[in-house]
Amino acid sequence: MRKKLIGLLGICLLAVVIPTVAINAQEKPVEKDVAQEKPYDPKADAQKDIDGLIAKAKKEKKNIVIQAGGNWCVWCLRFNDYIHQTKSVADLIKDNYVYYHLNYSPENKNEAVFNKYAPGKGKEFGYPFFIVMDATGKVLTVRESGNLESGASYDESKVLAFFKEWVPKKK
């Protein structure tokens, strides 16, 4: 009798749990497969790369945007995907900036580079965050990305306003 009662209780429990799990699974939004590209390179010599960016920015009369983050960070990958898929943003960046993804990961935290250009900002802002520099390598601003978000993506007007604010002055 006891075994039958336990069996019946188990069946009742499953009858309640399975529909609840199915309902909850349907309510959760399906994550879009973010960028296939993994733009952060843990093996890169970041300072050497940034030195090259400075030379390129001088030659092209552009500013530099460094997107700090890692391939482990869904919001970093979403932003990378967003700037490539949103034509107005992609064009603004292409015309005015050289762009770099500065890796932060267990394999390579790039501590010297972060300390040089944005000390403590990873802990303060989270990832991604942005370091904007002029063509001489002078840091113009360090900016968090949370207020650029909209739902599971980014707000085009806010992203454009951010990048437009730091467009190099044409002489």
UniProtKB/TrEMBL annotation:
Pfam families listed in its UniProt record = Thioredoxin_7
Query: Which interval of the chain is the signal sequence?
Result: 1-22
The residues forming a coiled coil are none
Q: Which domain of life is it from?
A: Bacteria
Task: Supply the Gene3D superfamilies for this chain.
Answer: Glutaredoxin
User: What are the alphabetically sorted keywords of the record?
Assistant: Signal
Q: What is this protein called?
A: Thioredoxin family protein
Native source species: Sphingobacterium tenebrionis
